[in-house]
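Q: What would this chain look like folded?
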Amino acid sequence: MSALQESIDRYALGPAILEYAVFGLSDEHVRARPGPGAWSIGELVAHLADSDVVASDRIKRVIAEPEPLLLAYDEQAWNDRLNMQEAPLDLAVALFGANRRWTERVLRGCEASDFARWGTHSERGKTTLAELLVTYVGHLDHHLKFLYAKRANLGVAIQPRYSHPIV
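A: My prediction, written as structure tokens:
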């Protein structure tokens, strides 16, 4: 299996990973701001959903358009001005999942040469489709570290359940 196919596979696992990461949280847990970072788990998941929609737009532009401009956005302003603290967690998770599945379909339809296509990010400069894919796989991983630390600080860390004792 190629590195590109592995990256697409990891990208495609994102929805299940996010669903697992927020499993069993009460609304109180979702809205609390225990740290690390200033955002609540709800705000963090809303950011992941919004960011993935932006990522999908960038991915599709790079595939479909010659050397497109990929605009940056102010994630803190989006969080504050779009009232993400009140965003329903289930909708954010559903949006993330639907968007990832839609974009996965697009990515799996690409030729290997498409991953060398590029756009110009307004802050980071030239970036290829392959780099965008790796960035967004890593973006989820990056934020999951914070999500799990917040869960631990709230005392609601996910505990593995075993049907038999570990020997």
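Residues 129-154 form the longest helix (26 residues).
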